[in-house]
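Title: Prediction job returns without error message
Component: structure pipeline
Severity: low
Priority: P3
Assignee: unassigned

Description:
Job completed but the reporter wants confirmation the result is attached to the right record. Sequence as submitted:
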Amino acid sequence: MEHMDKSTFDEVSVLWAEHLGAFEPDDLREAEVFGRPFMLLDAYLAGCVTSYVGSRRGVLGADQLRIISDCARDLRTLLSQLRGQEGRSYVARLARIADLILSDHPETRPLSKH
């Protein structure tokens, strides 16, 4: 998996640094997606993105890519339900990060089917 696109990796790294410096908006504290708390979704994605950025090469395992694919789907669902701008911006950034990572791993396309 040495095929990482440097510009994609750099964009993920910048967006992730921005995310780490952001406070979770109030309208997300009680938010749920498919009966699961948003905070759990945020935590799952955080573990995978930390591994992606920490590898310095964008390397992730199949299980991590599956989690990111599932998170991307759930984030898009949540985004369509949010009304507050702060919450929408926070979730949109996470969705962009997930989509970028998936675009850097074309083999993940079949994982998004459920």
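Comment from assignee: result matches the submitted record. Confidence is low (pLDDT under 50) at residues 110-114.
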